[in-house]
Amino acid sequence: MLETRNLTIRFGGHVAVDRVSCAFHPGTLTAIVGPNGAGKTTYFNLISGQLRASAGSVLLDGVDITREAAPARTHRGLGRAFQLTQLFPNLSVLENVRLAVQSRRRQGLNLWSVWLDQRATRERAMELVTRVALAARADAVASSLPHGDQRKLEVAMLMALEPSVYMFDEPTAGMSVDDVPVILDLIRALKQQPDKTVLLVEHKMDVVRELADRIVVLHNGQLVADGEPAAVIASPVVQTAYLGIGLDEAA
Q1: What is the pTM of this model?
Q2: pLDDT band at 6 (very low <50, low <70, confident <90, very high)
């Protein structure tokens, strides 16, 4: 589904991501972990198109998308949720999700098609709002939501785009203990779909242990471990690289 080949980016003399080659397959959730500054989010930015690679390539379904901009990659099926929420702050919760549904259906400004499908679009949007436990706040302005609810709204918008690849960058960051299970349940449901590929950058090792089918470890921009969670967590190189201590302590 998704592959990077020798993917590299340099900022001056600093190599932030260094020749990372990795393939990600449908029906699996891969957690990408590593110490602060390891290159995890930069690697995500290269895959989703927020940054342009210095060398190497990104392929989706065998098509080289390395030079395509982020919006083009989104239309091809790459869906990205950010550490910082990307919302329409002055619109309601429901309107944010409705616009995402409308974008997926490419209704644009064709008023006739919008009118014909308005009810179905709104119903789909409300379904997603309900799935992320925001039905009671459907009419609230997005900017008025607490951080945890904004993260849930962003996940609803991502789901509305129906991507083939879901990319979550620390989806539970800043969330209350009560909010976290909602997001984890949604991600768990997504990874059970055999045609979906899920990538997760996460510092919380309890979340990684619970969700991941596979762990990829980056350190100083390089891929240093890749495999099943138990084997990777037990690896000495990983326990040394992950903040210089054992992963159990890092959790």
Answers
A1: 0.84
A2: very high
